[in-house]
Amino acid sequence: MPMVTIQVTREGTTPGAASLTAAEKAALIKGSSQLLLDVLGKPHDSTFVVIEEVDTDNWGWGGLPVQEFRRRRASQAG
């Protein structure tokens, strides 16, 4: 059976935390694996889950650093 890899990319975290907790990561791994089992019939032993946490300084959106993009979008909405 082909192997399936899920990559979860998450930016930022709650204020004061450097990353997700071990319990949050375990829940993401368990839930993602179960989803593939339920939807595609992929057994857990052929599913890999990779959690990549990206600092908000390291990515952009709409041609801007993500924090600036969000500030502009919030000011347009409000």
Explained architecture:
With about 80 residues, the protein is of the alpha+beta class. The chain contains two helices and four strands; from the N terminus they run E-H-E-E-E-H. It has helices spanning about 20-40, 65-75; strands spanning about 5-10, 45-55, 60, 65. A two-stranded parallel ribbon has the order 1-2. Helix 1 (about 20-40) links the parallel strand 1 (about 5-10) and strand 2 (about 45-55). The model has no long low-confidence stretch (mean pLDDT about 85).
* Radius of gyration over all CA atoms, rounded: 16 Å
Shape: elongated
What is the structural class?
A: alpha+beta
Total helices: the number is 2
How is this structure best summarized?
By secondary structure, the protein is an alpha+beta fold.
SSE blueprint and pairings:
Elements: E1 4-11, H1 22-40, E2 47-54, E3 60-61, E4 64-65, H2 66-77
Parallel strand pairs: 1-2
Antiparallel strand pairs: 3-4
Features:
4 strands; alpha+beta; 78 residues; single chain
